[in-house]
Amino acid sequence: xxxxxxxxxxxxxxxxxxxxxxxxxxxxxxxxxxxxxxxxxxxxxxxxxxxxxxxxxxxxxxxxxxxxxxxxxxxxxxxxxxxxxxxxxxxxxxxxxxxxxxxxxxxxxxxxxxxxxxxxxxxxxxxxxxxxxxxxxxxxxxxxxxxxxxxxxxxxxxxxxxxxxxxxxxxxxxxxxxxxxxxxxxxxxxxxxxxxxxxxxxxxxxxxxxxxxxxxxxxxxxxxxxxxxxxxxxxxxxxxxxxxxxxxxxxxxxxxxxxxxxxxxxxxxxxxxxxxxxxxxxxxxxxxxxxxxxxxxxxxxxxxxxxxxxxxxxxxxxxxxxxxxxx
Length: 327
Known about the structure:
Phosphorylase Kinase, domain 1; Aminoglycoside 3'-phosphotransferase, Chain: A, domain 2; 2 domains; 11 strands; 43% helix; globular
């Protein structure tokens, strides 16, 4: 387990007051780009908080070649993307953890850190299994939250922090960026997975064919970008709370819906909406499958601890990508 530094006490004092004492620390499972810690306290107004650390040592992804940071698919990590996304969603009435401290001074810890509200009700993924009635209610609220987000429109696409600072986003269109990324992921997956390698040419041809069916678009919706039931917490009152929001961006909402379909499975009909472009859905589904082969295998190049899970994700999505050749 990667260790947080002795700076935790000072960080918590700054967030909660000098009376607060750290009495326990748990590193939470799941973060691959930042460290996520539940810090238990005494002498403060809250029994626990969550501390994010964007230290380089907390990033399990192997070093990649230089990528334009304004690219919508560039790694979305850091205090600034988090704060911009948190403010944007909170301003829309979309529930996200409250921020108790944001510190980029590096005075106490050699990386950006944030202290945020601890959402103690667990994930929506767990709740749907343990208490389906409460889970269904939270899922309905999540659908309403997504409606609010997806109905925010922009002629420009890209991460909200990139747009907010006035930088030009890479790429000519969402569908072109998805196609280019899918071709890169296909090439990478083909080198690592023999089943993909043996079907690389027909998969490449299929991507090109699907891309020709997509008509131009000038409006884009606000999407989370990686919204599975494990990225939705449930608060003590049963309301959904979005986490891992650094990748918030304006993009085709079909990209979000493809991911929702994959991650929510049988419960996706609760989140589905009419009016989605079937041509985009077809292209984005194959692109997403290839991403979920290449990405997990790339992560395994580093020292990510939950290796069996990642290998299983890659193998499952390789089979699903190949199935799309005959669908």
